[in-house]
Amino acid sequence: MSSRLEADHLYKVFGRRPTEAVERLRTGADREELRADGTTAAVIDASFTVEPGQIFVVMGLSGSGKSTLLRMLNGLLEPTAGHVRFDGQDLTALSDRDLRAVRARKISMVFQHFALFPHRSVLENAAYGLAVQGVPRAEREKRAAEALELCGLGGWEESWPDELSGGMQQRVGLARALATDADLLLMDESFSALDPLIRRDMQDQLLQLQQTLKKTIVFITHDLNEAMRLGDRIAVMRDGRIVQTGSAEDILLRPENDYVASFIQDVDRTRVLTASALMDTGATADAPRCACETAAPDTTFAELCALSARLSHPVRVVDGGGRVVGAVDRRSLVGFLGDEAADPSPCDRPEEKVTAHA
Fold it and tell me: Which residues form the ABC transporter domain (predicted)?
């Protein structure tokens, strides 16, 4: 079972007198004040927890500090202040030797630009982390072949990296991380170098693998739609600070400041929102109790629109036990598209196929 990851008030400062700079930040100094003195505060007071089996996405623009934060999580960068705890250990307190052992066995990283060895076969690349661990050749090749199969690369073991497409090379990088059976996967903009269609395929692949493997994953991206699609929880970074943490629905419906609100304004909400976010829980008593079409809490926005177009009353939302937990009316569906007075055509699609619950 994957283990819990905790980041506790992490700071990373580059430049002169970094410890003094942290104290200045704690007492109210901002990033620009430090920059004027030749000091760069890359990460400022970052705290979060990633529960076992979660995909935790850190999202932000270039220069926001997200990649620096990731590198502190596995000790590639030493925090100026703060702690990283994983699997019951304070990684920031370990010796270099012990930290290398943790990285070799418990933490794997998937890089943006594949980082494959051109002179090694696909199988040898996938087995590299196991070779570092000292796993015997027969066992590491077996485990690497199994990981390649999981990633859809069965039959490519003897190929060379330059014979593979970009998407296939990234699958090799993912297989290499999975072969070590590490509990924690750190993914640094791992899909951003791929073409859009291949990128979506890789997102699908990751989500499918996660259903089975249930790894603890920290995924870095600057792409908001990717964050919304992958993240169980999302942290939004700006100028070295985490400015909001929550589910995709939390961030879309309850942005904590103007920056987050402007960041999400172009997101296609219909791809993210579900009945659990849209329903009126106070409407359960008034919802019709007849044996008619209903929605589940995870029913998508498009499915809700199709149901609403067929019904003359709000769509009932029922839980797994058949209990009514809320209702969604057409006005709220149109309102969540951003215009209360808009024509309700987005919800007039009775031709869409919907799996309804009686």
Answer: 5-264
